[in-house]
């Protein structure tokens, strides 16, 4: 839903790469970081960025919620809530009904009547609002019999230094937009709409490259300066849906409400940027397995050239080191395990020692985290050279049901089934 304008050399700025769908490949933060856009259309004129809207409800083309295959936006807020003491299934349904109605309005660019005015003069700006349920949500609402087996707690990894106050939660919301004011307005509005039904557990703020910041579409870089996300699964892949979305049939009857949904693993991964910056460029490239300048694999070719894990250099050394990130994270090294990475970078100031508190808000999507994230992260945990420069500080796993049909609300089939 983009307004048409005459395109001139002066006004046209490529934005597809900036909206890439992305990120770390698996493992805590280890993973091929930010990715290529899932956007199919050509680059967008910068003047149209604000007018782009994303549908909240399901339609004939897609049953999943927005914010999964939607091109990665420039700014994001991740937030988790716990249901208030005494909350039950009825109050949870009322809350999700309110939130769903509000999300539909906000994503269409309609400001609330009691609005602060923050986003009055902005369009929808590709706003997406995605809702998920944590494991404890089912205990609070008396729905433990319908809790999916895939929502079992994630195992502990040796690189984990997790803060329980910044992880998990009954309800999770992902907000993304190409305008920071629109994203903040959505966050603030949903928080106020929660009222007494739920209380904030944690919040994290992220960003990636702004649409129009590069002269041509290209894969974005992470805060290590590395071009990453080249091998992220793409919707055109024949096995994309099977890897990312819960199938409509074949699962337990009690989990039928998740058909068309997905599971999100969320990790806050701090990058040890001062240590990383002390490495030479050559050493950084060997840790990742790709050239820093253009993202091409060290086995040769361009960014999109398939990685040759069996390639040797003229001196007899292997081109992609045994502990290189792209080798350890590759599907070939993990029995085909893969997931859709869609992370955002973050910077929360500086630590007491002066080091930046910055890194990746890693978000990955899969039909079953026990077949996607977990096996890959276990491999990365054991042998990824990049792990020495990462600290996994928060973690969460959420069941993200399909998008509601017009007139319905997120989770309706669970809460009223």
UniProtKB/TrEMBL annotation:
Instruction: Reply yes or no: does the keyword Metal-binding apply.
Output: yes
Q: Where in the cell is it found?
A: Cell envelope
UniProt organism field: Streptomyces varsoviensis
- Give the cofactor binding note: Binds 1 heme b (iron(II)-protoporphyrin IX) group non-covalently per subunit.
Q: Where is the Dyp-type peroxidase N-terminal domain?
A: 65-207
- Signal peptide span per the entry? none
| Protein name in the entry | Deferrochelatase
Q: Which UniProt keywords apply?
A: Heme, Iron, Lyase, Metal-binding, Oxidoreductase, Peroxidase, Signal
> Record's family?
Belongs to the DyP-type peroxidase family.
Q: Does the keyword rRNA-binding apply?
A: no
UniProt-listed Enzyme Commission number(s): 1.11.1.-
This chain's function reads: Involved in the recovery of exogenous heme iron. Extracts iron from heme while preserving the protoporphyrin ring intact.
